[in-house]
Design brief:
Layout: E1 2-3, E2 9-10, E3 13-18, E4 23-28, E5 41-47, E6 53-58, H1 67-75, E7 91-98, E8 111-119, H2 147-158, E9 174-179, E10 183-185, E11 190-192, E12 207-211, H3 221-224, E13 229-235, E14 238-243, H4 249-257
Antiparallel strand pairs: 1-2, 3-4, 4-5, 5-6, 6-7, 7-8, 8-9, 9-12, 10-11, 12-13, 13-14
InterPro entries: Tubby-like_C (IPR025659), Tubby_C (IPR000007), Tubby_C_CS (IPR018066)
Domain Tubby C-terminal: 5-262
Family: Belongs to the TUB family.
């Protein structure tokens, strides 16, 4: 993932790791270090066996997770000289699910994203959690861990599939994203979405997400149509990602990564 307005500056990188029953996309601030012991490690995306359900994990709990601040910190230090502080924890911050297409009907994939760390009120004038500080900077030494902390760290290191869990928002208070409904184009004989020129190549991976709004929330129709995240193809192995508040770059990037996993039961 690179920023178009900053001379193709690298923002985030991911490596896919296939396992017997799942697939992991490990996410880092650099393209050559995906170790959980590195200060450039951000988190991971994990799929189920069928590639229909995903969990986004962050290396920091939601109250202190900020891609912007961590990016600023990484630029202050040489990424080749990061300190090793032991394996990072993984906090579940979102779930993504793709609907099964058992009837093999035509149309784009359908997905839902439950953002456990982002309140629904953030699209109504409220605010999403924005951290202002971190427990410690790269240059500070970690304090000696307690006996219980040591046991938890050892457990996490030996069992990568077991992750720490921050306290999530109640489901009814969490922001839920869904696919924006496409329109059938009679002349082209295909389902179409208006990407406003940002997507130029047809692909099953293309999507737009809007907030899923229940009638009691009384949100104006125009607000419900606002695209919060869109992703699409513009060339061979080249895609664009556009996101807006209240998603962070990390959350948006992880959601888009889920589109690359094989989903034969959703096509």
């Amino acid at each position: 993932m690179t920023a178009e307005d900053e001379s193709d500056k690298l923002l985030l990188a991911a490596r896919r790791i296939r396992r017997a029953t799942s697939t992991d996309f490990v996410i880092s601030l650099v393209a050559d270090d995906f170790s959980r012991a590195s200060n450039t490690y951000l988190g991971k995306l994990r799929s189920n066996f069928l590639g229909t359900k995903f969990t986004i994990y962050d290396s920091q709990p939601p109250s202190v997770a900020s891609i912007q601040e961590r990016s600023q910190r990484s630029r202050r230090f040489c990424t080749k000289q990061v300190s090793v502080t032991g394996p990072a924890y993984n906090y579940s911050i979102a779930n993504i699910s793709y609907e099964l297409n058992v009837l093999r009907t035509r149309g784009p994939r359908r997905m839902h994203c439950v953002m456990h760390s982002v309140p629904f009120s953030s699209i109504q004038g409220g605010s999403a959690p924005t951290p202002t500080s971190f427990p410690r900077s790269f240059g500070e030494k970690a304090s000696p861990p307690s006996v219980s902390d040591s046991k938890e760290t050892a457990k996490d290191a030996s069992s990568p599939s077991i992750s720490s869990s921050a306290v999530p928002l109640p489901l009814q208070e969490s922001l839920v994203l869904k696919n924006k409904a496409p329109r059938w184009h009679e002349q082209l004989q295909c389902w179409c979405l208006n990407f406003r020129g940002r997507v130029t190549v047809a692909s099953v991976k293309n999507f737009q997400l809007v907030a899923a709004v229940a009638p009691p929330h009384n949100i104006p129709a125009a607000e419900q149509e606002k695209v919060i995240l869109q992703f699409g193809k513009i060339g061979k192995d080249i895609f664009t990602m556009d996101y807006r508040y209240p998603l962070s770059a990390y959350q948006a990037f992880a959601i888009c990564l889920s589109s690359f996993d094989t989903k034969p039961v959703c096509e």
